[in-house]
Amino acid sequence: MIGRFFRKFYLHIVIWTILLLLPFITYLYQPDKIADFKVYSALSHLVNIVFLATHFYLHCYVVAPTYFFGRRKIFVLLIAIGFATYVALNYCIVYFNPDGELAHLTKENILFVRLVIGPGIIYSLCMITSSMIFLYDEQARQKELNKQIALEKTTAELTMLKLQISPHFLFNTLNNIRWLIRKQSPDSEDTIVKLSEMLRYILYEVDGPKVELFKEIDHMRNFIALQTLRLPIPGNVALDIEDKVKNRMIPPLLFIHFVENAFKYGVDSKTAPQIQFQFQETQGGIIFISRNRILQHTEPRPNEGIGLTNVRRRLQLLYPNRHDLSIRKTDVGDFEVTLKLMTHED
C-alpha cells in the first residue's frame, strides 16, 4: 500500500514537471531562440501550472468526494467558478503583459480564443483527468470496503456456526454424565474431569481461527473416552494418527461432529461397536477418516441434520475449493466419512 502510494506520488511529480518544462523544449532544438526568452512569459506559464495543479488536487480530493455523488448542482457550480477564475487569471496575464499582448490579440480578433476557448479546453482536460482519478480511487476503495465487509460477514458466520456446535456438543455430553450418575458408576468423577478439560478447550483454546491439530486430537480423545464409558457392550474404538500431521494448523471443532455421529449411529445395546478414526498425511494436506458399523436405532433423533449442515458451511467458508467431503455406506455395511483438507496454503 505504501509502495503504491509513493509510485503514484512520483508519477504525478514527473507529469507536472513535464508540463512545466514543455514550452522550453524547443530551445533544445533551436538554441538561437534563447535570446528571445522572456521572463514574463515563463512566470505566466508557471502561474498557469500552479493554478491548474491546485485546482486538479482540490477537485480530486475535496470537491469530487464531497459533492460528486450527492450534490451535483454544487459540483457543477464549483467547476464553473473554477473555470471563470481561470479565465480571469488569463485575462490578467494578457492585460499586464508588458509586450502589449492585449492590443495585439484585439487587433487580430482572437482575444476570445486566447481567453475563453483555449483555457476552456485546458481546464476541461484538467477536470476530466482529476474526475477519472477520483472515480478510479473510489472504485478501488469500494472494492476494498466490500472485501472488508465480506471478511467481517464470514467471521461472523463462522462465530455463529461455532456457537451452534458447542451447545449441541455440551448437551450430549451432559446427557452422558447424567446416565453415568444414574448408574452410580465409579467413573463419574473422571468423567467430570474430562468434561472440564473439554469445556476449557472450547472456551479458551478455540477463540482463534486455527489451532494445532494435536490439541484438537486431545479434545477428541476426551470425548471418545467419555463415550466409551457408556458403551453397553465393549467393542473396538480406535484413534490412529500419523505423527507428521499433529502440528498442522486447522480450524477448531471441525471433526467433532463426525466423532459424535460415529457413536450416535454405531452403538446399540445388542452389538459390539466397531468404530475407527484416522488422521493421515496426504500431499498438500491431511485426510480424516471416520468409520463405524451401522446399527439400528429405535429412538427418534430430531434436528440431526443441523450439525452436518454447519460443518459443510464452515468448510465452504474456510476451505473454498480446497476440501473434499465424502460420506458413504461401504459394501460391507459400514458408514464412512472421508474429509480431505488442503492445508498447504494455510
Structure description:
There is one protein chain. The chain has 2 domains: 14-146, no CATH class; 185-342, Histidine kinase-like ATPase, C-terminal domain (Heat Shock Protein 90, 2-Layer Sandwich), CATH 3.30.565.10. 62% of the residues lie in helices and 13% in strands. It has 10 helices and 7 strands. The strands form 2 sheets. The protein has a 5-stranded mixed β-sheet, with helices on one face. Helix 6 (111-182) runs antiparallel to helix 7 (188-205) and helix 6 (111-182) packs parallel to helix 8. The radius of gyration is 37 Å and the shape is rod-shaped. This is Signal transduction histidine kinase internal region domain-containing protein. One of its GO terms (cellular component) is membrane. InterPro entries: Bact_2-comp_sensor_kinase, Sig_transdc_His_kin_internal. It comes from Sphingobacterium siyangense.
